[in-house]
Amino acid sequence: MLFYLVRKLDKKQKKDSDIDILIILNRDFNYYKEIKKISQFISDLYLENNKLIVCCFTTVEQWEKENSAFYRNIKKEGIKL
Questions:
Q1: Within a 10 A sphere around the Cβ of 5, how many other Cβ atoms?
Q2: H or E element that contains 27
Q3: Helical (H) or strand (E) element with 22
Q4: What residue ranges do the domains of the chain occupy?
Q5: Element spanning 77, H or E
Q6: pLDDT digits 0-9 by tens, 1-19
């Protein structure tokens, strides 16, 4: 699963809001190895949009149990890809 969230802009927020990407994996993972796998994609996305890209990883288990503001925001406003 991959969720992509672009923070909604309102009058108080800057036009240069970052792009948050959450990748949900079916297994435990090594963060460094996962970042290495997607670094070119993230670089290309940055160059294409000229926006800071924040990429996070989680497991399905964490996604289903965690109730952080970040996860709630993605569940509410995120776009599932």
A1: 20
A2: none
A3: strand 19-25
A4: 2-80
A5: helix 69-77
A6: 665 555 554 455 556 667 7
66, amino acid identity? E
- Residue 25: C-alpha distances to residues 46, 47, 57, 71 (Å): 23, 26, 7, 15
Taking only the tens place, the pLDDT of each residue in 60-81 is 999 999 999 888 888 888 888 7
Q: How far apart are the C-alpha atoms of 34 and 6, rounded to whole Å?
A: 21
Collect all residues with Cβ–Cβ distance below 8 Å to 53 and sequence separation of at least 6.
18, 19, 21, 42, 45, 46
pLDDT in tens, 19-63: 788 899 999 999 999 999 999 988 998 888 888 888 889 999 999
Please provide the size of the chain in residues.
Answer: 81
pTM: 0.73
